[in-house]
Write a structure and sequence with these properties.
The protein has about 350 residues and is α/β, with parallel strands linked by helices. It folds into two domains: about 5-175 and about 215-240, Rossmann fold (3-Layer(aba) Sandwich); about 175-215 and about 245-295 and about 310-345, no CATH class. It has twelve helices and eleven strands. The protein has a seven-stranded parallel sheet with strand order 3-2-1-4-5-6-10, sandwiched between helices. A two-stranded parallel ribbon has the order 7-9. α1 (about 15-25) links the parallel β1 (about 5-10) and β2 (about 30-40). α1 (about 15-25) crosses α6 and α3 (about 85-105) runs parallel beside α4 (about 140-160). The longest helix is centred in the N-terminal third of the chain and has 21 residues, at about 85-105. The two termini are about 35 Å apart.
Length: about 350
Amino acid sequence: MSSSRGLKVVVIGATGNVGTSVIDALSRESAIAEIIGVARRPSNWHPSHTRFLTADAAHDDMNEVVRGADVAVHLAWLFQPTHRSQDTWNNNVLGAIRVFEAAAEESVPAVVYASSVAAYSPGPSDEKVDERWPTHGWPGAAYPREKAYLERWLDTYETRHPSIRVVRMRPGFIFKRESATSQRRLFLGPLLPHRLVHPDRIPLVPFVDDLRVQVLHTEDAAAAYAAAVVNPVHGAFNLAAEPPVDGAFLAKAFGARGVRVAPFIVRSAVAVGWHLHVIPASPGLFETVLQIPLMDCSRARDELNWTPRHSPHETLREFLLGVHDGAGLPTPPLNPDTTANRVREFTTGVGQRA
């Protein structure tokens, strides 16, 4: 537990897109004395003020991992293997439950959990929803099903453990330069020629009517996590930057021509690519993007004193440059793009790696 020096914070899932930025944000907080980063695989990334443990939330003793912590931040999540949903369920749902139960058994005072906009039920097209909107997800894909299930599970957890401060972060789509190769690998696969992806050389932007999403720079998401760690807040927080992104926004931002595409064409193309193991993203994930609502983020602004520093245009430009450059970090989830890594994506099966 906390000493006169400050808080001890354990971050589970510390070497991915969000985890690396959360570690950096926590290291700048004077109220924090000790940071423990937890990941399934060791890495060559060594941030300051952080000690690392290797542990798998789905299998290892999480009581030992969270023992003595003031706050447990749970970020660990697998998007792949998309063709074996039982594997992602075991890690994402059962692994998270093991972390939460361990936190209760070890009397950890606070748990901060990475939920998502995908936990929300479909919403209105003409207005934004706040944190009171139902979180039943969208049943057609593993990701929203798993996020929604954990929302329901945490409802009962909070009833059973009223002394634990539970915070649920519900961000939009999170990007940074260093996550570009990882996200290309997770959602688009190895066939995308990264050298052709450049924000200044995009001639056409395909768009689907009524498809709008909210994006957020990972550093801004991490700042919200850090605020939730050091302040006595609880409950859910929507996180996104303004304005929402649609085809018209992208075309204007990158000087491209927008081309309208019917949803069934995209849906069919993704389905064929996924079933042929050419792309890792499932057709259900595209359906999820069509269903998710736009979020009202005023609660985070008011209670966390949080405002994103990066605009959606800045975030997406940085991300696309990262795809072009094969950017990453020396951690297993964020390894930079190399020919050997692309070959490994094929040999291990597109959409199959865990």
